[in-house]
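ERR on first pass: missing label on line 2. Operator R.T. fixed the label and resubmitted. Corrected input:
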Amino acid sequence: MTISTVGLDADDTLWHSESHFLVTEQRFGALVSPWLPSEEAAEKLLTRERANLEVFGYGVKGFTLSMIETAIEASGGAIPAEALQQIVNWGKEMLSHPVDLLPGVEATIDALADHYRLVLITKGDLFHQESKIAESGLAERFHHVEILSEKSPTHYRRVLDRHGVEPSEFLMAGNSLRSDVLPVIEIGSYGVHIPYGIIWGHERVDRTELEPSWHHLDRITDLPQLLGTLV
Amino acid sequence: MTISTVGLDADDTLWHSESHFLVTEQRFGALVSPWLPSEEAAEKLLTRERANLEVFGYGVKGFTLSMIETAIEASGGAIPAEALQQIVNWGKEMLSHPVDLLPGVEATIDALADHYRLVLITKGDLFHQESKIAESGLAERFHHVEILSEKSPTHYRRVLDRHGVEPSEFLMAGNSLRSDVLPVIEIGSYGVHIPYGIIWGHERVDRTELEPSWHHLDRITDLPQLLGTLV
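pass 2 clean. output:
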């Protein structure tokens, strides 16, 4: 069976996202530096974010609340309220940040759209993801946009069922092995890893978990060519 | 054309939600009472929430961040960090609160499911809405679950298009005139208003805006009977 449908991740696959988190984490490290060395700040924040995932889910608002909690805890309650307002302002800045497309994204999507049904598959905050998709100007090139709360094999299976696509005719490409590659391989689809420079601690996976059944590309612009070799 | 598809709102239509916001708002009023009389606290919080909607969207996480900002502003930065942690804890409590179904909801949904295609149509935070739907035990009685970032005529039209439903064969029932009734009447569907005891300031509409083309029910258990009279 040939590939009919190509799923693309959004954050850090089509546009920059993790770089904005990193800038904010660095600012956060400076803010809490009276109480914590900066390596510890990053570690404590990640621990808090992970603990909060099951109640907040993914996205900037939960990240902002996790920064507030980490700052209060790290300072033993001594951090002044204005510093916490500063954290809220960073959250708003991230939510309002213009969308920066990664190089070659538009041309690649145009090339793929001629031959495949394209589906944008992203996870996280519904409102923020919709805003970014609208602002990117790419929405109309996709047959469907799927914003999921998590990217598990079950979630992918549900998306394919909804659109009547067999796993064997589906390829997913994205920057996260954990979210974009491993779960689609598990359901019998093709997975393509296109790393972004920075990877969020929570998305890291041990490479030994991986079967050699996924593809690796350095840049999204190589995707049309790879697809040509698969069919 | 007869009605084939019934849309049901979730928060304050199938289960309690606004009552949890109200409890938190009262706690918030007490927390900021050293700086603000309680009526003013509620008003300032609503103003802040509305201003933040375009960057946060709907949901508990944005509400929590708005409480934090309002408390910092109202206290001129004097509020201690532990009080702000308390606000974060209330947000988490709301996000983890068990789902309380409204009276008669299960029986009504069972009765409707025999005759109509049921779609759950809710707005707000994807992660929190999915958690509540899963916990409610009602998910499998619905053909589809649609979680929207906003409930505008355009959003409803998109949902109906996606499922191949004509506006004239669609009825939407919910507690908000603004979100569940007015926009569906605008696209030519049936709207049924089933008020909840408490209404969030942002959802209030002036009744003079309304054409007399919507239906009013005191409780969801009357919905099957109303549907019987419409077809």
